[in-house]
User: What shape does this take?
Amino acid sequence: MPRPGSSGRAAGWWIRRALELLTWLDEEGIELPDLSQVHLERWLESGPPNRRDVRAFVLWTHQRGLTSNLTVPVRLPEDPTTFLEDDDRVQQLRRCINDTALPLDVRVIGSLVLLMGLQITRILELTTNDVAVHEATVQLKLDETLLQMPPRLAQLVLEHLEHAQAAWESNRAASTTPWLFAGLNPAHPIHSQYIYLKLRRLGLGGLAGRNTARLALAADVPASILAALTGTSIDNATDWANFVKRNWTDCIASRAHDRL
Assistant: This one.
């Protein structure tokens, strides 16, 4: 399915989107050969923009006669417009790390958004199995990337992990998935809209905080590293790199020349 020469990470994104589409078709009672353009667009519009990464899978199924010739509309990139002042982001991050009066799930999710630029919907997909603990090191698994947590955030993640594991052990009959952020129905994670509202009510910037964190990262690292750090697609990371008008091609070329 993925084109030859594509990276393992990109292939992972395409496979993930393909599995999401196939799961949705199964839930809707639609056989793959019956997938229509209307069905496809309904699925695309009901989820996040990264669902358009399913384009490779749709092309692959058409080439093998499994589906008709379907089109995944190209999303024209829009420059982000919602940001925080960086001082505000740092202040909010300190609240998440230090303020024990805040709910623990808010502290962890808010920190991951404000420091790492992670998307809330991506955070809520995490399970307890996506937290790797080795001695004093705590890492989050995002697709094929292991993202190491700074010490103080690592401690928060560990504390929340203990609560999440205990909750899953007591609700195994209701859920087969050990969500890191289980909802009231333990078979599903917390609804993203609930977290957005909770962050807003506590004065923590959800989208604005994420955008500001990604802006800071995009100014300092190449798009490939930004994609790995944030768990976003390489296309989205490239959009961010373009947004801050940084050309990393010359930087990479100069480093390669220095090694010669």
Q: What stands out?
A: DSSP finds twelve helices and three strands in the chain. The CA atoms of residues 7 and 165 lie 33 Å apart. The radius of gyration is 20 Å. Residues 8-63 form one domain.
